[in-house]
Design goal:
NagB/RpiA_transferase-like, alpha/beta, Ribose-5-phosphate isomerase A, single chain, binds ribulose-5-phosphate, 6 helices, Ribose5P_isomerase_type_A, isomerase
């Protein structure tokens, strides 16, 4: 007997299923990372099994690649298809201006590369991800070159962050790109995401931040009242 899904997972699945319906014949599709994106991948695999033909899918992480490949989704990459018709991914926080914090799953760099290569970036999430201001629930992940972690930590602290190096099994978590992640908590929240993003990018050794600004075309939220689409 399978155990019943939590309401949050049911809402994630609703959003993932709705986003899979946006995929059309002949598209090149970017696939996000995380539990909500996994529902999308499963729903898309089902549509392909039923006859939908896409040019190919590009994964934002090794984990997503493995899942999609195991479900017989035809995989491609940005060298073969430098432009994506659509990129669909989850988020950790979504503010009213569709600015995001992403990267709790550690895939923020590839996710941002795919989002920026896409004609359309669709965010899928359960309703708990909607916030009025970024930075109150999730820390902001910053991907860094490992040897620069200590000077970067110092400079992030000067920007007001409480910084923790992300750990996995008591050793630093290594991203798919062989970097570290510094998780930055801003106790007052993030009042100006664009300014903070620019300040963090100016620190040498920073590879990317989990702030996604001016990138989102559409947000699909699953919640107790069903699916809501915002654009
Ligand atoms: C991974 C991400 C994910 O999209 C984000 O963490 C949301 O995950 P989930 O769908 O499991 O709640 O940014 O780097």
């Amino acid at each position: 007997m399978t155990s019943p899904m939590s309401p949050q997972n049911t809402w994630k699945q609703l959003a993932g299923n709705a986003a899979a319906e946006l995929i059309q014949e002949g598209m090149v599709v970017g696939l996000g990372t995380g539990s909500t994106a996994a529902y999308l991948v499963q729903a898309m695999a089902q549509r392909i099994q039923q006859g939908l033909q896409i040019k190919g899918a590009v994964a934002s992480s090794l984990a997503t690649y493995d899942l999609a490949n195991s479900l017989h989704i035809p995989m491609t990459d940005l060298d073969e298809h430098p432009e994506l018709d659509i990129y669909i991914d989850g988020a950790d926080e979504i503010d009213p201006q569709f600015r995001l914090i992403k990267g709790a799953g550690g895939a923020l760099l590839r996710e941002k590369i795919l989002a920026s290569a896409a004609r359309r970036f669709v965010v899928i999430a359960d309703s708990s991800k909607k916030v009025t201001q970024l930075g109150h629930i999730y820390p902001l992940p910053v991907e860094v070159v490992p040897l620069a972690k200590t000077p970067i930590t110092l400079q992030l602290t000067r920007l007001g962050a409480e910084v923790k190096i992300r750990q996995h099994n008591n050793i630093p978590f290594i991203t798919d790109n062989h970097n570290y992640i510094l998780d930055c908590t801003f106790p007052q929240g993030i009042s100006d995401p664009a300014q903070l993003d620019a300040q963090i990018h100016s620190i040498v050794g920073v590879v990317e931040t989990g702030l996604f600004i001016n990138m989102v075309s559409q947000v699909i939220i699953g919640g107790p009242e069903g699916v809501q689409i915002f654009s």
